[in-house]
Amino acid sequence: SLVVPEGAGSYSYCVAAKPESLIDRAAQAIAIDFGTSTIIPTVFAPGGAIIHRQVLEVGGCIDLLSEIASDPELIKFLGSGKSGNIETIRQGIESGNFQYGTRNFNFRYIYAHHLTPWLKDRLRLAYKEIAEWRDVAQSFVAWGGGSEMPGVSKMLQSQGINPVPDGCWANALGLERIATGRLARGK
């Protein structure tokens, strides 16, 4: 009986985080959602209403995976003259072993080479989008699966952005919290 805007579940998850909330409900907050296809900076008013939300013109994690797939060193290793398989690359990153499928090729250094420019570009655009709220927001968080990729958390923290634990599940867990609360109130 309720349709909430994208990010509402993640916001709820952050407000209810234990032992300490990740977002101060009484103040403005900024979140950047690092998704598969999109990067979405969002500004929340005290209490969680969305003040500003804008999908960036660049893609999300899929762009990074595509850059790795088309890296000349990977193409050379594959010997086909074609880009690598994005799904195989995603699995290697998610497993943390950076192996290209069952082949004896570790692409960790290719990932590291492409990660920093990919993230810096997205942060630059996100900062531009939320510039007028950046100095007054009391919380600055990142969620979405991209925030959990190896090395991203450390890079975000160095920029004063708090990566949300379970960032790829934050929205689902927060939506469950919202639904449970509504059910308890009979809505």
Keywords for this entry:
single chain; 187 residues; alpha/beta; five-stranded mixed β-sheet; 5 strands
What can you tell me about this protein's structure?
The chain has a 5-stranded mixed β-sheet. Helices cover 44% and strands 12% of the residues. 33% of the residues are buried. Helix 1 crosses helix 8 and helix 2 (61-69) runs antiparallel to helix 5. It is α/β, with parallel strands linked by helices and 187 residues long.
Task: Summarize the structure in short.
Helix content is 44%, strand content 12%. It is an alpha/beta fold and 187 residues long.
Distance between the termini: 8 Å
Helix and strand run = HEEEHHHHHEHEH
Helix content: 40-55%
Strand count, sense and barrel status of the largest sheet are: 5 strands, mixed
User: What's the overall average pLDDT, rounded?
Assistant: 93
Shape: elongated
Strand order of the largest sheet: 3-2-1-4-5
- Class by alpha and beta content: alpha/beta
- Number of DSSP-assigned strands: 5
Q: Which consecutive residue ranges, at least 5 long each, have pLDDT under 50?
A: none
What Rg is obtained from the alpha carbons, in whole angstroms?
A: 18 Å
Strand content: 5-15%
Instruction: Supply the number of helical segments.
Output: 8
